[in-house]
Amino acid sequence: MDSLLAIFVIIVIGYFLGAISIKGLSLGTSGVLLVALVFGHFGVEIPSVVRNFGLAIFVGTVGMIAGPVFFRNFKKKVYAFLILGVFIVLSGALVTVALAKLMGVRFDLAIGIFTGALTSTPGLAAATEATTEVLAARGIDAASLSSVGYGIAYPFGVVGVVLFVQLYPKIVGCDVKQATKKLHESLYANRNSEPRESKGKETKYLELEPIGILSMAIALSLGVLLGKIKIPLPGGMSFSLGTAGGPLFVGLVMGHFGHIGKLSLSSPPQLLKGMRELGLCLFLVGAGTDAGAGFVEVLMTQGVKVFLLGVVITLAPMICACLIARFLIRIDTLTTLGSVCGGMTSTPALGALISLCKSEDVAASYAATYPFALICVVLAAQIMALLW
Q1: CA-wise closest residue to 278 among 63, 53, 121, 119
Q2: Strand ranges (E), the chain
Q3: Nearest to 113, CA basis, from 96, 101, 99
Q4: Exposed, middle or buried, 335 (CB in 10 Å: 0-12/13-18/19+)?
Q5: Are 89 and 370 in contact (CB under 8 A)?
Q6: Residue 158 near residue 30 (C-beta atoms within 8 A)
Q7: What is the distance between the alpha carbons of residues 189 and 56, in angstroms, rounded to a whole number?
Q8: Helix, strand, or coil here: 16?
Q9: pLDDT on residue 196
């Protein structure tokens, strides 16, 4: 099938699938991922630029929407975001090592499962490089299986978190509508009470263009460039924010300041929301077809136990993080779930949470937790490869 036609067909079928609701739970936009997996299994290929283009648009627009309240929220709860981001990754790594050794799963395959369960492409890149070097150093003439493990664990890593963020409020008896209202009030209370320099007058800024595409494109351009900057790490490795982190950070900054002098850098909320959904769709189409290629064959070869290992690695850190957030750190349910999405580096789950709450306010805690988790996944993959 032609790639262009396949993109639209996958989105159409995926949206119909995602709209099916069973006892209040639905896949939403993540239905696109499952359809893409099937298409990928049957040989449909989508250029990688589609996936990266969608990812950059999604996280960039999320950043621009969340920017006005992000930095205030970050300063107030930085310890909570740090604890949850580090804990989710650390607990996932410990579960991976313990169960993989118990089940006799090869170390490079297990580390790949770990990065797939946390849906971290930068983590996969670090895992592949580190495990390849370790195999060579040990004189083992075999290719790293980290990408195979990633492909096995990735689908449930996406779908599992999407369903979890919808199910958890029901389990704890959270009224999502009321919780969203309270979260909004807590985020904007100080902002609305700030004294204005000229009461009753609003500063008018010069728009770059009326629709807002240009401002968004500037943010994404700067974000992609920032994501390409590599920071050296011990052992000859390097770290970068990548296509996910760079546009997110720049979007947050532009959304926070909104203007330079009298020149507006903002885009209309309706444009950002529409582009956010489009970006998520395109990302899932590309990621799903990539993961779907050879998925069934790999699963049959490696066994169902490897898939189940990925399921446990996805679920265990989320459950433990929610318990810590609820009983130790004591933060509200929606902030917790936003942090869980960030700690699991799951952009589709954030999309599902935004749809559930009908508010972008939950993106603030996602954006605050995501950088900690991103760095930790990369480091954890390298450390596990060296110490296994």
Answers
A1: 53
A2: 21-22, 25-26, 231-232, 238-239, 259-260, 263-264
A3: 96
A4: buried
A5: no
A6: yes
A7: 31
A8: helix
A9: 56
Spatial distance between the Cα atoms of 32 and 12, rounded to a whole number of angstroms? 8
For the chain, state the CA radius of gyration.
Answer: 21
151-177 burial: b if 16+ Cβ within 10 Å, else e: bbbbbbbbbbbbbbbbebbeeeebebe
Mean per-residue pLDDT pooled into runs of 10, the chain (388 residues): 92 91 78 86 88 86 80 78 93 95 90 90 73 81 75 86 94 94 83 47 72 91 90 67 80 86 85 88 83 71 83 96 94 95 89 90 87 82 83
| Residue 161 confidence (pLDDT) | 93
Instruction: Give me the pLDDT at residue 239, please.
Output: 65
CA 147 from centroid of its chain's CA atoms: 18
pLDDT at 190: 56
CB 346 within 8 A of CB 58: no
Structure-block tokens of residue 234: 């011990």
For residue 34, what are its two tokens? 């499952």
CA distances from 165 to 32, 153, 176, 362 (A): 18, 18, 11, 12
Tell me the helices (H) and strands (E) count for the chain, helix number first: 15, 6
Question: What is d(CA 35, CA 290) in angstroms, rounded to the nearest whole number?
Answer: 12
